[in-house]
Amino acid sequence: MKQPAVGQSMDRVDGRLKVTGAARYFADHQLEGMLYAALVCSPVSSGRIAAIDAREALRAPGVTDVISHLNAPPVPGYKQETPNPKQGLKIFHDDRIYSNGQPVAIVVANTLERAVHAASLVKVTYNQETHATDLYANLDKAFQNKSMKDYLRGEPDAWKKAPVTVEAEYNIPLEVHNPMELAGITAHWETPDKLVLYAKTQGVKSVQQTLKNLFQLPEQNIVVHSLFVGGAFGMALRVWPMEVAAIIAAKKVRKPVKLVIGRKDMFTLVGYRPAAMQKIGIGATADGKLTGITHEAVAVTSPYEDFTEAIVGMSKFMYACPNVNTHYQLVPLNLSTPVWMRGPGEATGSFALESAIDELSYKLKMDPLQFRVINHADTDPEKNLPFSSKYLKEAYEMGAEKIGWKNRTMEPRQLQEDGWLVGYGMSSGVFSAGRGKATASAIFGADGTLTIRSAAADIGPGTATAMVQIAADATGIAPAKIRFLLGESEYPEAPRQGGSSTVSTVGSAVSDVCKLLLQKLGEMAAESMPAFKDVKPADIGYEDGQLIVTGKPAIRAGFREVLQHRQQPELQVTATSQGGEERRKYSMYSFSVHFAKVHVHPATGVVRIKHVVSVADSGTIVNAKTAGSQMIGGVVGGIGMALTEEALIDHRFGRFVNNNYADYHVPVHADTPPTDVLFINKKDPVINPMGSKGMGEIALIGFAAAVSNAVFNATGTRVRDLPITPDKLLPNVKG
Amino acid sequence: MNQFSYVRPASQKAAIDAIFRDNTARFIAGGTNLLDLMKNGVTAPEKLVDINRLPLKDIRFSNNILHLGATTINSEVAAHPLVKTHFPLLSQALLAGASQQLRNMATTGGNMMQRTRCSYFYDITMPCNKRSPGTGCGAIGGINRMHAIFGASDQCIAVHPSDMCIALAALDATVIVAGPKGGRRIPFADFHRLPGNTPEKDNNLGKGELITGVEIPANPFTRHVYYLKVRDRASYAFALVSVAAALDISGSTIRQARLALGGVAHKPWRLYEAEKMLTGKAPTEENFRIAATVATRSAATFQHNAFKVPMAQNSIITALSKAAAI
Q1: Record's PANTHER family (chain B) (predicted)?
Q2: A119: closest chain B residue by CA
């Protein structure tokens, strides 16, 4: 028996394409007669467009058109009745300005430079209205919509009666999606009712669905290509108004139009992690048993959509605590709509919860790891269900051993190395292990190759590589003979790549379609091959690319032989896969544990992370190499959240002031320490055929708290407002 | 970005003429800052005069003076054996700036000509007296965490962004300039300006004047030097505060001290009083602490940058201690 492909550190199937530049991203596609677009964006944050003077822009060399609400072709899906303020931003539909940076016109020209220059010549005047962009100055506008239910288990605010308590406020700033690849789209109306798109998306099918409704076209008349994505992290989970702008422009000029937005527009046009204020009250008995947790959160949204996420979710079930209540509200501000950003709400919430747990452990004079173990939830206290699998205690032990947790002192400021204070911190992370519905088709050729298609995405984790490994094990066919194709809307339906569920969802469909393929091959053999004449299809199995028969070792046939015997060039099957009853019987989560060792310079407040250990309990690891890279990527994102990232708005103008790579600090290599990624790698017996839970989100969830907790251990200063910049750690300074 | 013409004159004189005759023309060398400014619409020269092919690339040490040509590139200067041996402070400061890719393009002259990184200066929808005199200062009353604590005016509180220039200020460099009326030498301390009522002027170059090089006299600061840059991430970030510290120590006495701060003023901020205070004293933490207090006496802060005063003090003590190796 061959070694299974799942579990191998197989190289990426598209690695060569990526490192040689042969992989084509959305902006790499050059279409015949293609024009280039640039946006004109509002410098005011609220009000109405009074006038647009495009004369000078239209006179500039190479300019084809300037399109705005004054001359845009109508979008049939925009509802014409009384505008409901929560219907999203209908671009170029009317004169309303909801936020700074909102596109008010799009310029189309025959080169990018000419489009950009002409955009600067469009003169727009505004009737400005008062705006609000400061969360803290607008807390009185906080509200809950119908989907935001308060949670209560046991008694509300029970923590207040506990002998040992912590009550604290934690703040995270607005964080911006800043993958290297900029956002945009190339739109081409091949005919007045057929739209072809080269998109940056986490789900080609979801783009197709959105635009089907917006432009009222038959599904098959919208073709979406998205073969490679240069980082997305949640920002490409929906169709943005700027993409609709490019589609509108292409319709009007009747030529393919490419739009790639600028770096500054990444702050205003593709969502962001909403700024959030959180309050935690938490209490325990003197021997460290949690008695109550209260978690309240207020986060930012736009005037025209309510964006909600699971900020307070983790507090409901992470620890065995009899009394928990949560409360979550939104404040609408003159900003664009937020979107999921890796880890999404759980990353925000875990910073508060896992910091508060740490704070309480110091009050208890108890090792924070020990404190977490004491309060380990053996079953899900929120759903009252057993976990499908949970190896969190093992993860704590593995991580502690690797980081050298025994070197940590309970008392802060006890350790120094080379004149720097040393601290150790830890935290846990958790994210729902999902399994959605997906379809895959498989074509087995008489040449021995297997091609599987599904409209999945690869925003970086190595989707196709994992799918090839899963298919190799499901069929016994060598990985080199298998291709997995994704990123085309014409392929069988797959959900968006988000919420750490691609391996679980699409991998299950791949596994199922492979099983179906073998079953069909067996049936075909039983039906037509003489050796299989008296064999029941149910007795046919497979081994190493051959059909075998239970109890009759002499009878076998290669998969190719079955087709060749029938002179059939290929066999195609399609299977749809989704979870069943198990989700009602089990609570399914992936878990992570993060450990950080930090240095803090006592005089300047500079923090350097010296060592990170992240442990993932995410079931079977399909590919340790790509999974390891994914975890390291999450850690780097977590370093940004902990130490460097903060989008700054000048509230007088409602405008971002650090909207570029120089001033909005994503971590650089020098900020990124040696990172050990450890996997529990134990199969989840329930979730899906592979036993794989997700891991994209848990890589980041909790990480910021591990750093903050380590900084406290080093300095005795608790930073509750991210990011932890040097000024916040200077002695005797108020930030 | 506007349309512009591009010329590459064969001689220094032709380059100077091209600028002198045309108010909208600008010299370009590495372009690492100018291109950003043009893309953002902060500046819109109608002509770029490329000086990269002029013979201004020499690095030589003669008559006890280091001469750096204006178009020597930052990475080359930082790595040059003469610089590392005789002027290690300059090498350290250069390596603290920007990223390797930028240092491979940026030149000595261009580095001096860098404009501030104040957000309000870069965003043409915002008020900024430096970009558009008379429109007001966006940073006063705005987000001013990165801004000046010394020498600011009610017109402008922006800071000078260079690291290299902080070392050049500490090392008493001289800027060599050629112009339509001939050449002149500008002491480094007089090259950059404070904002006063003319924040649009970063420096004292006259119309058509071209930096051809910079000279640094030999000095005893070869051993006890340290360039400390405190920033929000480990690389590729502008200074919150930076310190160029150089000591000439004999036995247990400081014979001479040089001290300059970056990230705190509209120009490299030389700390003459603190230098004087340290002269003749022992290199002790206590003396460094006194020097740090002296150095920050005239600091005035804004809403978000009060931290820069203790950060500057602590950084001065740290840099001096590192330089003295105590």
Answers
A1: OXIDOREDUCTASE, XANTHINE DEHYDROGENASE SUBUNIT C-RELATED
A2: B1
DSSP assignments along B192-261, one per residue: B---TT-TT--B---TT-EEEEEEEE--STTSEEEEEEEESSSSS--EEEEEEEEEEEETTEEEEEEEEE
CB contact under 8 A, A668 and B3: no
Using CA of residue A236, residue A238, residue A239, residue A240, what is the dihedral sign?
negative
pLDDT at residue A534 tops 90: no
Q: Is the pLDDT of residue A482 over 70?
A: yes
Do A43 and B125 make contact, defined as CB atoms within 8 angstroms? yes
- Residue A537's pLDDT is 87
pLDDT at A735 over 50: no
Check pLDDT > 60 for residue A83: no
Contact A232, A200 (CB under 8 A): yes
Cβ atoms of residues B259 and B279 within 8 Å: no
Nearest by CB: A653 against B126, B233, B238: B126
Q: What is the mean pLDDT of chain A?
A: 96
The pLDDT of residue B209 is 97
What are the residue ranges in chain B where pLDDT is below 50? none
The pLDDT, as a whole number, for residue A623 is: 97
Angle at A141 between CA A135 and CA A147, to 5 degrees: 100
Nearest by CB: B314 against A604, A660, A671? A604
Is the pLDDT reported for residue A524 higher than 50? yes
Task: Check CB contact under 8 Å for B233 and A732.
Answer: no
What local confidence, expressed as pLDDT, does residue A178 receive? 93
What number of CA atoms fall less than 13 Å from residue B297's CA on the CB side?
Answer: 8
Q: Dump strand ranges (E) for A60-174.
A: 63-68, 96-97, 103-109, 123-128, 151-153, 164-172
Residue range A175-184, pLDDT digits in tens: 999 999 999 9
Between strands A482-485 and A450-453, the pairing is parallel
Chain A: residues touching B (Cβ < 8 Å): 43, 113, 116-117, 120, 601, 603-606, 608, 643-644, 648, 650, 652-653, 655, 657-658, 660, 662-663, 665, 667-671, 725-727, 730-735
Distance from CA of B229 to the nearest CA of A (A): 10
pLDDT tens-digit readout, A634-686 = 999 999 999 999 999 999 999 999 999 999 999 999 999 999 999 999 999 99
Helix (H) or strand (E) holding A117: helix A112-121
Name the residue facing A671 among B119, B122, B233 (closest C-beta): B233
The domains found in chain B, sorted by start residue, are 5-52 (3.30.43.10), 224-324 (3.30.390.50)
User: Smallest CA–CA separation between B80 and chain A, in Å?
Assistant: 24
- The minimum CA-CA distance between B277 and chain A, rounded to whole Å, is 22
Alpha helix stretches (DSSP H) within A640-734: 703-715
Which of B307, B315, B318 is best to mutate for the A interface (most A CBs within 10 A)?
A: B307
Is A169 one of the catalytic residues?
Answer: no
Q: Which domains does chain A possess?
A: 34-130+178-267 (3.90.1170.50), 132-176+271-380 (3.30.365.10), 436-578 (3.30.365.10)
> What is the complex's ipTM, to 2 decimals?
0.97
Model pLDDT, residue A84: 66
pLDDT of residue A733: 43
| Degrees, nearest 5: CA angle A107-A109-A113 | 95
- A727 neighbourhood in chain B, CB within 8 Å: 145, 240, 307, 311
pLDDT at A104 over 60: yes
Nearest CB partner across the interface for A730, out of B3, B138, B310 = B310
Residue A543 confidence (pLDDT):
87
- Predicted confidence (pLDDT) at residue A80 exceeds the cutoff of 70: no
Taking CB atoms and an 8 Å cutoff, what residues of chain B touch A660?
122
Dihedrals phi, psi of A49, to nearest 5 degrees: -75, 125
